[in-house]
C-alpha cells in the first residue's frame, strides 16, 4: 500500500531518537513506502524535539509524509500502525530497583492504556526503553484489547552484538552467521546461544571449538557490551540501539530471512520451559507481522541453566511489578 505507515516513537528527543528518527525517515524501515512520524515526549523536552524536527525538515526526505509531536500519548498514538517505545526513566544515583520499576511502571501503564484507546487495529509495539522486557509486560497488561502477541521487547541489539563477536572470532563475514539466539532478559543475565547458531552452515560452537572462549569471553562480552560502550564513549549505546530497533521492526513487519531466525522478546507460551506470560527472548521467525517461536531445538544442561537463570530474573521482575499493582 502507498498510504503512509504511521509510526510513533516515544522519547523522541533522546539519544536513541536522534539516530532512530533519521533512519526511519530515510526509508530504512519501509523501503519505498512513505512514513508518518508521531513523536511523543515529556513537556520539558518538546522544545528540543522541535529542533530535531527542524533537522528532519532540513533533510528533505522524499518518503517522510508528515511529522507530529506532542506530550499527550493518546493523541500521538492515534491510528498508529507501529509504536516504538524508546523513552524511559534511566536509573538515577541512589535509585533502587523498586524505584526504577515504579518510575517506568507509571510510564508504561499510561502508554499501554493510550495505545489500547487510540492505536490502529493492526498495531505492533516494540519496547526499547529499559527494563525493556518488563516494560513490555506492563504495557501489554494495560492494553487488554490489543493481543499480547503484538508486543515485543528489544533483544535485537544483543543479537547483533553476538553476530558481530562471532564473526570477528571466526573471520567470517556477518552475512555468514545465521540462527543466532538471545534467550531471556535484556540484561546481564541474557544468554547468547552458539549451540544452534551457524557459521556458513556449520555449527558455531563446533566452528569455534573453544568452550573456554564461548563461556568466559563470548557470553560476558555480549552481555556486558552496554557497560563497555558507556565506559568508552561516556554515554550509553544509541546509534546501535536505533539500528537494532529498525532491524527488529523491519523483520517483524516484512519477515525474517528464509532459513534463518531472529531474537525477539515475546510473551511466552511455555516453550522451552519459559514460564507462560513472561516477555522473554526466543528464536523466532516472522512473516506478515506475526512471529512464531522456533520449535524443537535441543537444549543441553549448559544452556538450560543459563536460560533458567535469566527467566528467573524475569519472574522476579514480574513479581515486583505485580506487588506494585502495575499489572
Ligand atoms: P535518553 O535519556 O537520551 O532519552 C530518553 C528520552 O525519553 C528523553 O528525551 C526523555 O525526555 C524521554 N521520556 C521520558 N519519559 C517519557 C515519557 N513518559 N513519554 C515520552 N518520552 C519520555 O535515553 P536513550 O539513550 O535514548 O535511551 C532510551 C532507553 O533505551 C533507555 O531506557 C535505555 O536504557 C534503553 N536502551 C535499551 C537498549 C536495548 O537494547 N533494549 C539498548 C540501548 C538503551 O540502553
Major sheet: size, sense and barrel closure? 6 strands, parallel
Mean pLDDT: 97
Q: What helical percentage do the residues reach?
A: 40-55%
Q: How many strand elements? A: 14
SS class? alpha/beta
Instruction: Name the strands of the widest sheet in spatial order.
Output: 3-2-1-4-5-6
Write up what this structure looks like:
The chain has 327 residues and is an alpha/beta fold. The chain has eleven helices and 14 strands. The chain has helices at 15-25, 46-59, 73-76, 97-118, 132-141, 156-170, 204-208, 211-223, 225-233, 239-254, 301-323, and strands at residues 5-10, 35-40, 64-70, 82-85, 124-127, 151-153, 177-178, 181-183, 191-193, 198-199, 202-203, 262-267, 279-287, 290-293. The protein has a six-stranded parallel β-sheet, with helices on both faces. The protein has a three-stranded antiparallel β-sheet with strand order 7-10-11. Strand 5 (124-127), helix 5 and strand 6 form a beta-alpha-beta unit. The chain is globular. It starts with a strand and ends with a helix. The model has no long low-confidence stretch (mean pLDDT 97). It binds ligand NAX. Ligand NAX binds at residues 10-11, 13-17, 40-42, 45, 86-88, 90, 107, 128-130, 132, 154, 157, 186, 226, 236-238, 241.
Amino acid at each position: 500500500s502507498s498510504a503512509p505507515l504511521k509510526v510513533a516513537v516515544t522519547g523522541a528527543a533522546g539519544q536513541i531518537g536522534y539516530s532512530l528518527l533519521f533512519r526511519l525517515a530515510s526509508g530504512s524501515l519501509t523501503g519505498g513506502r512513505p512514513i508518518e512520524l508521531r513523536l511523543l515526549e515529556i513537556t520539558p523536552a518538546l522544545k528540543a524535539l522541535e529542533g530535531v524536527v527542524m533537522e528532519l525538515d532540513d533533510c528533505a526526505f522524499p518518503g517522510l509524509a508528515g511529522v507530529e509531536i506532542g506530550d499527550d500519548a493518546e493523541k500521538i498514538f492515534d491510528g498508529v500502525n507501529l509504536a516504538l517505545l524508546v523513552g524511559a526513566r534511566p536509573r538515577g544515583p541512589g535509585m533502587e530497583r523498586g524505584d526504577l520499576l515504579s518510575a517506568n511502571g507509571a510510564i508504561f501503564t499510561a502508554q499501554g492504556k493510550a495505545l489500547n484507546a487510540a492505536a490502529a487495529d493492526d498495531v505492533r509495539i516494540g519496547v526499547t526503553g529499559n527494563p525493556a522486557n518488563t516494560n513490555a509486560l506492563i504495557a501489554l497488561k494495560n492494553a487488554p484489547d490489543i493481543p499480547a502477541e503484538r508486543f515485543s521487547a528489544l533483544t535485537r541489539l544483543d543479537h547483533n552484538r553476538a553476530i558481530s563477536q562471532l564473526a570477528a572470532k571466526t573471520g567470517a563475514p556477518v552475512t555468514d552467521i545465521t540462527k543466532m539466539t538471545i534467550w531471556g532478559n535484556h540484561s546481564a543475565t541474557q544468554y547468547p546461544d552458539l549451540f544452534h547458531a551457524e557459521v556458513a552452515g556449520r555449527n558455531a560452537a563446533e566452528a569455534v571449538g573453544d568452550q573456554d572462549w564461548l563461556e568466559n569471553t563470548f557470553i560476558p562480552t555480549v552481555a556486558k557490551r552496554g557497560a563497555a560502550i558507556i565506559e568508552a564513549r561516556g554515554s550509553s549505546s544509541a546509534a546501535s540501539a536505533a539500528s537494532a530497533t529498525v532491524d527488529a521492526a523491519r523483520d517483524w513487519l516484512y519477515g525474517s530471512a528464509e532459513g534463518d531466525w531472529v531474537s525477539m522478546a515475546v510473551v511466552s507460551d511455555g516453550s522451552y520451559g519459559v514460564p507462560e506470560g513472561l516477555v522473554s527472548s526466543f528464536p523466532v521467525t516472522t512473516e506478515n507481522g506475526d512471529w512464531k517461536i522456533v520449535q524443537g531445538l535441543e537444549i543441553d544442561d549448559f544452556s538450560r541453566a543459563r536460560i533458567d537463570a535469566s527467566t528467573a530474573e524475569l519472574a522476579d521482575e514480574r513479581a515486583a511489578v505485580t506487588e506494585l499493582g502495575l499489572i
